[in-house]
Amino acid sequence: MPKPDTEHVLLLTSFGFLHLPKDADGRPVPPSADRIEDVRDRLRDPAAARDILDLDGLNPRVQDVVLNTPGARELLANLADYATLPAGPRRIAIGCAGGKHRASGLTELLAREVRARGRQVDVEHLHIHLPRVLKTTDTSTGASA
Question: How far apart (Å, rounded) are the C-alpha atoms in residues 117 and 133?
């Protein structure tokens, strides 16, 4: 008789809110997950550091900038603790504006930490390959998008 699957693989997904499909009310529809972490307001955008503009979260320099952002270490520890609960989640999705820097960098850091704690992890980056999202100004209202 086969042994029951007691160790399920955790899927970590990074994404960019600005690239998601919209629901009927115009709200972005994030990927399905047990926990969706929106880091747009929690972590400052590392793309402001000009030397990493053309890099993505797979690059150790980007990961270092993300990790050294105020609040990032605490968030990473919280997510790792959650991911390694005995009856832990199957999917965690992390989103930022474009999915190129914060979300993908934090996802890579989380994958490393969770693997170090003994859990199997798969990683997918939905929007890391897309060009960096530039803020635009709505000329009718003067607001930034």
Answer: 34
Contact between residue 101 and residue 56 where contact means Cβ atoms under 8 Å apart: yes
The amino acid sitting at 37 is E
pLDDT tens column, 69-110 = 999 999 999 999 999 999 889 999 999 999 999 999 999 999
pLDDT in tens, 133-145: 765 444 443 443 3
Strand, helix or coil for residue 45: coil
Q: Which residues contact 108 (CB under 8 A, 6 or more apart)?
A: 57, 58, 63, 123
Helix or strand run (H / E) with residue 104: helix 102-116
Torsions phi, psi for 14 (to 5 deg): -105, 150
Q: Please, which residues bridge with residue 47 across strands?
A: none
